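Folds abound. A case:
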Amino acid sequence: MAKIKHHNFLNTVHEVFTDAKQEGVLHLYAEGDSFSGRKIKVKNRDLFHFGTTGYLGLEQDQRLKKASIQAIENYGTQFPLSKSYISNPLYRELEELVTAMYQAPVIITKNSTLGHLGVIPSAVDDNDVIILDHQVHWSVQNAAKMLKTRSVPIEMIRHNNLEMLEDKLKKYTHSKRHIWYMADGIYSMYGDFAPVNDLMELGKKYPQLRFYFDDVHGMSWVGKNGTGYVLSKLKELPPNVLLFGTLSKTFGASGALLACSDMELYQKIKTFGGPLTFSAQLEPASVAAAIASAKIHLSKDIYELQGELKERIDCFNAFLASTDLPLIDHNESPVFYIGTGMPKTGYNFVNRLMNEGFYVNLGIFPAVPVKNTGVRITISRHNQKEEIKALVAAMEYHYPKALKETQTTPERVFHAFNLAPKTTSGNISNDGLRIDIKKTIKEVDKGLWNSRMAGQGAYDWEGLKFLENVFQDNHVKEFNWDFRYVVIKDEQDKIILTTFLTHALWKDDMLANENVSRAIETQRLEDPYHLTSMVVSIGSLFTEGDHLYWDGNHPKANAAINNLIRIMEDLQREFDAKMIVLRDFEKETPWHRNLQGHGFVRVQMPNSCIVNLTDVVDLQDYLNKLSSRNRKHYRKDIKPYLEKVQVKVVQKTTRFELVQIKKLYGSVHGNNQGLNTFPFPEKLFSEMNVHPQWEFITVYPLGKPETIIGVMLCYKNSGQVYVPAFIGMDYDRLRDFSTYRLLLLMTIDRAIELGYQKIDMGMTASFEKKKLGAQVIEKYAYLQTADNYALELLGIMEGQ
């Protein structure tokens, strides 16, 4: 398979958010002339509010409101000066109060995102390294990426995986000045905690280790003076910890803060700090509100407020404990996450709860993996026991209905989150469809298969029999594939859907650019399976083209889609695969909304290239039908080289020729890390050499018939399509003989000679193929991943 292009992250997020917006659960507007915190008005309905991040309800505290109003009267709506020159008159008091809270020097920032952008590049030196928890907030990851321009290495570990962290520490302990580990104190989606005490023990073991905690969701509701979860564990701030908190969210005001007890580092950050210098300062009303809140935090009132919130959290936990709802993390934070698995189930569940009078947040990609969609519920002091109890009752009633309506089960949800199901509910109905799954093509009727799948690529019945011979019973795992052949029929035995699936080992960086692949390949010299994953995919890594027959006009066409996805998810569970891939779709596909709803994200593949040979008599006739520009390309860039070479089509090579062909293919594979897959088994070429439907188009320098400089490995698909599947070339002679272009031309000539009507030209070098008359078609794949770790890690590595 050709390399799937690394997806445009923003385009993917845009598609997911657009889908959620169309379902009425995202980008909503609150309504009404006032807001109390307990209820929120949306779509002309008053809903109990379970989506706030103001856990203590201080944003409605009269002391903060009065202070803000007075500040506007005294100083205006803003103080339009950079803090580097002069701060508004209220700043000094705020800084003194927050410093008293933390018992450490603090820096006030406009917000946490700008704060990270200012602090991280100032704190991290060029001789340092950054290690990110892969669930650390996007704003921290984004700020860390700025250091790539200074060649600071950025690593990533799986969430809260201290063993993996220590491996990274050992890697850098003798080469880097400081090793920065960046994590959240409380994670914003699941509400789980960083293992602060265990991390401090690692800090004792590795003196170079520095910690950067984003504890904005731990602020105010826990800890002495409401200084948050991290400091509640640390008791006092050590010099090797930078701690971010927020004046927004639970604090009830606006802005963010950095606490730093290392005075030298503190002065370095405060003196400049990028956005800390050039961003506008907080408005007087915000500073005044923060002062009022800080005074509450420094009084006994904060502990009364914390206690009231804890009663509500305990109440919600107690009600949840009597249900079978899939609570993803059991903890004492005000953040709860009920998994729904598929986005469309999440949409359904959120809308049902809104109809019952409850507002909750949807947790969706990129905050969580798409298949880990869920409902994020936050508890605040505004919530009363009666509505907390009513919310749990509504969830318990509507959750199974949302699952049923979106064709899923509790088992599928629990599997998506790696949880043990509390109950079993049986299988989903297959809508009366007849589903036939075979493990070998030999068990599939040849005529039936070819009636739907011949003429597409190297996967007619004979082609798949060939693939099974090559990719089974090998000594290494990347050369051993599991095959499944799926035929879905209606009650009258009419075929609705046919495809084949493979379970195989993929390199994760097949989705990344060449620079990333080169960096990863150096690590694979010691660990050959570094960043590799087992994948269940339509088609295979060997084949290209439209691997799927689907009758979109059939009344049960969508039911067939749902059954195929279920089959692939069952295989993923059976094989413990990390990813599901459906591929080779055109951009405007009726599958799009259905696949997005099932937790797939769309990525763009390389363009597909097809050559149409209908009514073509010979090669000259074909060339005459090209555009004038393309004919000029032929005359200038290809024709002169025809006199320098000899071309021979070989059905069966000598042993000496086969050795050369293997070497030439290996040269192309090794030089193309933009197409970074595992090489193929040695026996592939010998199997091709004895198979009647494979042949080799070979190119030799004129007068040197013993020296092959280029080869096209071609498959003849059931007399319907010619498939130049792979290429081999001598790169040292590429320019001298224009080998690649010659092979493209000779492939067209050979297909015409054999009487084929179409050539499946594959997915690479579409620009060159287009110049020889190929039709270029945009193609897309849909990915469903077990988690975001690999994709986020590759994103971090881009540009390093």
Q: What stands out?
A: Confidence is low (pLDDT under 50) at residues 1-7.
